[in-house]
Each structure stands twice: as C-alpha cells, then as structure tokens.
Amino acid sequence: MRPSGALLWPLAAALILAGGHARAGGQIVVVMRTTDDTHHETLAAIRSGLQTPLPGLQVNAIDISATSTTRFADASVVVSLGSSAAHVVADSQLTQPVVHSLLSESAWQGLPTQPDRAGRPPAVVLDQPAARQVALLELALPDWRRVALLAGPESGPAQRQLTTAAKAAHFEVREATVSTERELFPALQSVLREPAVLIVTPDSRIFNGYTVQNVLLTAYRHRSPVLGFSAAYVRAGALLGLYSTPAQIGQQTADMILRLLDGQSLPPKQAPKAFEVAVNTNVARSLGIALDSAPSLTAALARQEAGGR
Prior knowledge:
Layout lengths: L7 H11 L8 E6 L4 H15 L6 E6 L11 E7 L1 H10 L5 E6 L1 H5 L13 E3 L4 H11 L5 E6 L4 H13 L3 E6 L6 H8 L5 E3 L12 H10 L4 E3 L2 H6 L3 E4 L2 H16 L7 E2 L5 E4 L1 H7 L6 H12 L4
Parallel strand pairs: 1-2, 1-3, 3-4, 4-5, 5-11, 6-7, 6-8, 8-9, 9-10
Antiparallel strand pairs: 10-12
Organism: Parazoarcus communis
Protein name: ABC transporter substrate-binding protein
C-alpha cells in the first residue's frame, strides 16, 4: 500500500538517516534573504541548535534570488525563512523534506500544495496563540474587559480564534471586517467608540508600515491601549507587545529539523513556544495605566502556561 502524503515527510527523513547521510556530514539548505538581519539571526540560532548535537552537519544559506534545483541537490532538508522564501521553495517542488519558518500562519496557509503530498510542509509560524494573547491581557490589564478586533483578507481565522478565546475569558468583544485599506479607519472608529484594548494581528493588508502610525494614533486618541505582535510595534507606540525573537524561532526550527531527521512525525504547523513581552512605559504613563515590567510579565505568563510551576 502506498504511504499517505501525511507520512511522506517523516518517511523521507527516516530514509535519509538510514543512509547515514545527515549524521555523516549531510547538508541543510536555508533559503532566505541574505541582506535581512532578522533572517541572519534566525539562521545563527538554527546553526547552533543543529551543530551541537550533529557537529558534522552543514547548514548552508542561499539567497532567494539565487535558488535553482542544482543548489538543492545535496540537501537533506530544505528550510525557508520568511514568506517570500517559502513561496520560492514551494514553487521548486522539491522531493526533500521541507520546513518553513518565520512566516505568518496566513502566509503558510496561502502556500501552494503539491499534488503528491497531503497538505503543506511543516512550519514554525510567527502568530502567537490566541489563548496566550488573552492571558497576557488578563495579567497586564486586569481592569480592561473590552477588546477590539479587526479582520482583513488574511486574518479572518486569527480573529475568530481571538474572539473565541476572549469570550471564553469573559471579555466583551468589538469586531469589524476590513476589505480594503480605505475601510480601516472607519472600522477603527467603530470598534473603539468606547475604550478597548486593540489587538493587532499580523495581517499585512491592513496593519503595515503605511498604516501603523495612524492606527496607533487613532487608538491613542480613543484612550485605547494596543497589543502588538512585535517589539517594533511597542517602539512605535503600542502599550504591549507579545512576540518571539528570531533566535527563539530559529531554535524551535532547529528542534523541528532534528525531529524530522530522527524520523518523528511533525504537526502541520507549530505556534511559537518561547516568547517575550515588551511594554512601552511612556504610553502607559500617558494613558494612566500601571504596568508590571516586561520581564515580570514574561515570567508570569510562562509560569501560567507551564501550569504554575
């Protein structure tokens, strides 16, 4: 009986190991933007996480502009960093196992599938779990019981997960759908007509470099704190940030590759395991909000996820 597509990734890895290729000095190829500092930081963590247990394993980076089938010929596993690299790798229709990393869940969902494989290759996505975001709000802002959510073309599933998690925690939820950038600010006015915590999702169609300042200013004028998904959002004016660093994503990606090389089954995607909380004390002061420190919130949230240990 032919193995199902869901089993092809671990089966391929097991065959690689059976031949001794990976442990005898095989090669992991990482497709990335070689001019991107975030990608380099992620790559360094991947190398560290792989070469300690497998010192003979080569981890070689190639730029997305220089990919070809010959560059992948000797690869035991191919890794992509970022959504652009993920599309390049997906379009290459490789026979080797693939791991995508450093991309949003919506970008991963948008990747093409291959006819001979069930679903998409496994990925480490950037999106923080909805339950984690809601838990942070309960820890950091216990007196705020209203959240505001906007969904765009890429973030419908994320909004639904956040809505479910927030309502389960007894938050009042204000939400709106935005189809075009022109609809963004009327929608913001609607969901923030009463002060609420605006949760920004990684939907680049509505929350991007062109809109971020206006989004943050609109929220501030409505006396509404913002929970962002990166340290950059906090520097720009969000009250809180919940995110995973490139090094944390890189280490988790390395762990995923090691499991793959050991022939273990992998989930279709993994949310970040390690994370950081950032706070903007100037915004907190301006809004009259008392906040614990970022390290305290990070530690408290990690303890809560670990069951209080």
